[in-house]
Amino acid sequence: MTEKRGELVLRVVPGITEINSNGHIFGGWILSQMDIAGGIVAGRLAEGAVATVAIDGMKFISPMLLGDIVTVYAHEERRGRTSLGIRVDVVATRGTDQRQIDLTSGIFTFVALDDQHRPRVLPAR
């Protein structure tokens, strides 16, 4: 995972309903948390509504276990005319020794939307 994790956007503890038959947290649940965190950052940078249009390069590095504290970091990785690439990194805090374990990372692309839900130009920085 990248050294520059970015802003801490979410910190959550998954519950028993998010666990699969292997005793790991569902990948879709993790993906959902990443999309929420990326959308928060993208919406702030776009100064308005955004929609997820792509997820690039996401790979699960380690399984997430029940009891892990999940921390989601995000930062702007790239900027286009109407879209933003937001890198989202997920880290688990595990055990009594509070080990930090990299879980997954990916780049979520969001497009800025106007009132008609069509792409709009991003505001100047």
TrEMBL record:
Pfam families (alphabetical): 4HBT
Domain HotDog ACOT-type: 2-116
Keywords, alphabetical: Hydrolase
UniProt-listed InterPro entries: Cytosol_ACT, HOTDOG_ACOT, HotDog_dom_sf, Thioestr_dom
CDD domains from the UniProt entry: BFIT_BACH
Keyword Hydrolase: yes
Domain of life, source organism: Bacteria
Annotated coiled-coil segments of the chain: none
PROSITE patterns in the record: HOTDOG_ACOT
PANTHER family attached to this UniProt entry: ACYL COENZYME A THIOESTER HYDROLASE (PTHR11049), ACYL-COA THIOESTER HYDROLASE YCIA (PTHR11049:SF5)
Family label: Belongs to the acyl coenzyme A hydrolase family.
Protein name, entry field: Acyl-CoA thioesterase
